[in-house]
Every structure is written in structure tokens, then in C-alpha cells.
Amino acid sequence: MKRILVTGGSGFIGSHLCERLLEEGNEVLCIDNFFTGRKKNIVHLLSNPYFELVRHDVIQPYYAEVDEIYNLACPASPIHYQLNPIKTVKTSVMGAINMLGLAKRVRAKLLQASTSEVYGDPKVHPQVEAYWGNVNPIGMRSCYDEGKRCAETLCMDYHRQNGVRVKIVRIFNTYGPRMFLQDGRVVSNFIVQALQGKDITVYGDGSQTRSFQYVDDLIEGMLRLMAKPDDFTGPVNIGNPGEYTILELAMKIIDLTGSKSKIVHRPLPSDDPVQRKPDIRTAERELDWKPKVSLEDGLKKTIPYFEEALRQSGLKGM
To answer: For the stretch 240-270, what's the b/e string if a residue is b when 16 or more beta carbons lie within 10 angstroms of its beta carbon?
Structure first.
């Protein structure tokens, strides 16, 4: 049994990770400041004697004896990370420093949850790990993009200077149950709008592309990366290389929900990437990993969650 610390463990991805780690017979310490995480996501785990929940902000140092650390703490949706951009930068940078310091002290292995946003609006397609990115350092999204890039820098410097065992995963668009109703990301936006019979809001002409992975595939990739020998640090892209235009996604969700929603267009936000698709050859080669859940199957698992969430919240569905 390993003792594993998960920062941001009550969030969308973190809660699925905590659940999986417990299923595999580990002791899990979940810390979260509940800025975007919710107790509802992990309430079913609280009765497990090997699960512990602590309210804590990773901007402040934390001390615990652990074997592994998954550093997921950071708001990931534009509406959340732009709400308090300075806090977002602090969470990414100071949070990484504090968790890497902890890993150094107790000789734990750390997995840093990075993001496809480190590639910015990419000039290389699909995005390979060797690509340095095309990021605006002073834009509205830079608090998140540059915060995550700096966290990667810190991981590699702690690794080279102090011998800390690190893994870096670059997470591409992920969806599934336990996302916020008002998450602000495209899959949740479209599903909620479709279920409520509202106009589906597409920014720009909808020709921009994204790749969408179901959360279970991501968790499997993260666990496989953490299990790799210490000489392999990554970064590794974990995402589904199936590429869809935003319009294609909107029409697929309308079809799966049986909605009568209409598609309306709004101006494209600044620095919004035109293309986003992972090159996953490193994950295939090093982790023997590739996604198993198709977009249609993943949406069929996700839509009922949002139907129930709308019902519980008292918001009217179709």
C-alpha cells in the first residue's frame, strides 16, 4: 500500500484519480481549497478508512509523509482561471514549488499535471512534446498557460539540481462526469445548452478544431506514467487524437440529446487556439497507452450526468 497525495483531489479529474487510486489498494490523502473542487465529488469516498480529506491551499507549504504526489491543483477552465489570474499563477508556480519541496524532503515521486495549453496557438500540428509552443505571455490566457509552463520548468530544475523524481503529463481536452454545470469549457457548455433547449453558442465560425478524451482514458495514462522508471520524466501528451471541429461537436451533442437547439455564433475570444490535436506516439511507445473511449461513447456516459445535475440544481431541462 502506497500513501499518495493528490492536490486538487476534489476537482473533476482529481476525484476520478482518488477513486482509482483507492480501488488499486492505496491510501489517499486529498488536499483541496475548494475554489473549483467540490466535496460532492468525493463524498462517496469519505467513509473509506484509507481516504483522508484536508482543506488546504497549495500556495502554502504542506507537510506529510507520502510516497507519491499527483499535483493537479489549479483551475483549468478559462472562466475560472481568468476570474483571479494572479491567484492562478500563484497556484501553478508556488504550488509546484511547495509540492516539489515536499517531494524533495520525503523522497516522494511527483507527477505534475500540465496542459496542452503550454503549446498556445500552435504552429505545429499535431502537437509533439518537442514543440516549444506559441504562447502570448501577456494575454488573457497567459496566467494559466505561462503558469503551467513555469511549473514544468520547476519540475525539471528540481529533477536536475536536487534529484527529485518527476513526471510531466500534458493533458488535452478532457470531459466526463463531475464537470461543473457552468464549467465554461466547450463540452459542458454545449451539453447544458442542448439539454435546456437553449441556443448553442459557437465562438468564431466553428471551424477551429479540438480533440476530446474521456476522463477514464486520462486517469489510465497518468497511472502508467507514474509507474515508469525514474529516468523517464516526460513530458508526455495524454489526449485523444480524434480531431473534430467545434461545429461537428455541437451537431453531435444536438443529435445525442435529441435537442431542438439552434447554433448561434459569437466573436472568437483572444488567443483562442485554431487547432489542437495531440501527437500521442510517445505515450504509445513509452506507456503502451492509447485512448479506448470514442467521443460518441464518452458523450453517452457524460450526458446523463448533466441531466441529473440539472435536475438536482432545479434548472429546467428540455
So the answer is: bbebbbbbebbbebbebbebebebeeeeeee
Place of cell 445535475: 309
Residues 6+ apart with CB under 8 A from 298: 175, 176, 212, 213, 214
Q: Which of 283, 282, 272 is nearest to 122 (CA)?
A: 272
Write down the residue that cell numbers 469549457 correspond to: 185
Q: Could you tell me which residues come within 8 angstroms of residue 47 by beta carbon, excluding any fewer than 6 positions away?
A: none
* Residue 70, C-beta contacts closer than 8 angstroms, at least 6 positions apart: 4, 5, 6, 7, 9, 14, 17, 110, 111, 113, 222, 226
Helix and strand element counts for the chain (H, E) = 9, 13
Please tell me the pTM assigned to this model: 0.93
- In this prediction, residue 314 carries a pLDDT of 74
| pLDDT tens column, 57-84 | 999 999 999 999 999 999 887 788 888 9
> What is the chain's alpha carbon radius of gyration, rounded to the nearest angstrom?
19
Q: Cα 31 to the chain's mean position, in Å?
A: 16
Consecutive H or E run containing 305: helix 295-313
Of the residues 119, 144, 158, 214, which is catalytic? Answer: 144
Whether the upstream peptide bond of residue 126 has omega within 30° of 0, thus cis, is yes
Which regions in the chain score pLDDT beneath 70? 270-272, 316-318
Map grid coordinates 477514464 to a residue.
Answer: 216
Residues 80-97 as b/e (b if ≥16 CB within 10 A, e otherwise) read: bbbeeeebbbbbbbbbbb
Reference 29, options 65, 80, 75; nearest CA is 65
Torsion of CA 283, 289, 295, 299, to 10 degrees: -120
- 81 catalytic? Reply is no
